[in-house]
Amino acid sequence: MDVNLILIMVLAFTAVAAMVFASGQYYLRHAQLRRRLPVAAPSSSSTAGSARGTMHGLITRHFGEERFGVDNVLRSRLRRDLVRAGYFGNSALNYYLFARIFTVIVLPCAIFLLARMFLPTAPQPLILLIVGVSALLGIFGPDAYLARRHRLLTQKYRQSFPDLLDLLVVCVSAGLSLEASIDRVRSQIGKQNSELGTNLEMMGAEMRAGRSTIEALNSLADRMGLDEAASFVAMLRQSVELGGDIGDALRVFSDEMRDKSLLRAEERANALSVKMVLPLGAFIFPVIMMIVMVPVVIKLFRALY
Q1: Collapsing DSSP states into helix, strand and coil, what is residue 38?
Q2: Could you give the residue range(s) of every CATH 1.20.81 domain in the chain?
Q3: How far apart are CA 59 and CA 53, in angstroms?
């Protein structure tokens, strides 16, 4: 029998055995408890919900950070990166570990099987190169996805942050305190930017738990990873420590943020002409040249022949 066929069979059997073992362990631990629960008539929505719950239970139980030796420093860094990418759930780290393991193990095996099925005559070094590239994608893919999500959320935060400052200026000018103003504008910002609203909800929970406003704002700036938020916290800290007027400081800072937003828009508009050079030269200019030169070439061809 071919060695490659034996290797494919062994890999497939190992993958199926691992899935069956994990599912069996989960159902074995919860079988007695489920027997004691009342059985309800299943519906389509309840069936889908139970499937999602089963998958969620498997991931949260078998892909914990303690099982894989994640220390406190690495766990804090991963949770910060996940929150900056917009994943605020308690089980986000479990899903991240599951995605890392899945992409590192399953993706190269799947690429190897597909290469053997659809490229049976390909040389062995090429197959190994393809599998190695897929393994690298599996290793660096989740982190690259989180980095991309963080960049997109940073752009959304920059668009919504001046509106947050304007609402805070209005509330503080109306006589509300800073804490009451943040609590007042939280729902309005959440309608425009759900991620920023979630961050404000977390900051409100920290303040209700006993943290000071400046400490809660520091945590907000760290979770957002936005330079404007860090500058906002520094400005508020200076105003509180020196006894300045928070309303005037917010008004000046809001005007600066509006000016910076306008400058960024003008910068993108000025860079548009440079970015259009490549599409014009690659797609539009050849078509124009063809429209101009084809009639001339046809006339020369008729005149000569």
Answers
A1: coil
A2: 153-266
A3: 10
In one letter, which amino acid is 2? D
Burial pattern 192-216, b for ≥16 Cβ within 10 A else e, equals ebebbbbbbebbeebbeeeeebeeb
Q: What is the CATH number of domain 153-266?
A: 1.20.81
For residue 133, report the phi and psi dihedrals to the nearest 5 degrees.
-65, -40
Task: Give long-range contacts, CB 8 A cutoff, 24+ apart: 4-12.
Answer: 4/116, 8/112, 8/113, 8/116, 11/109, 11/112, 11/113, 12/113
∠ CA 112-114-120, rounded to 5°: 90
CA torsion sign, 272 to 273 to 278 to 279? positive
Q: What does the radius of gyration of the chain's CA atoms come to, in whole angstroms?
A: 29
Per-residue pLDDT reduced to its tens digit, 141-179? 888 888 999 998 888 888 888 888 888 888 888 888 888
As a whole number of angstroms, the distance between CA 170 and CA 254 comes to: 11
Q: How far apart are CA 299 and CA 302, in angstroms?
A: 5
Instruction: For residue range 50-104, list pLDDT tens digits in order.
Output: 555 676 777 777 677 667 667 778 888 888 888 888 888 878 888 888 888 888 8
Return d(Cα 78, Cα 93) in angstroms, integer.
7
Q: Please give the span between the terminal C-alpha atoms of the chain, in angstroms, as a whole number.
A: 66
Distance CA 210, CA 76 (A): 21
CB atoms within 10 A of CB 304: 6
Residue 279: in which H helix or E strand, if any?
A: helix 277-279
Instruction: Name the residue among 103, 96, 100 with its Cα closest to residue 75.
Output: 96
**Residue 132 gets which letter from DSSP?**
H
Indicate the angle between helix axes 213-224 and 72-84, nearest 10 degrees. 80
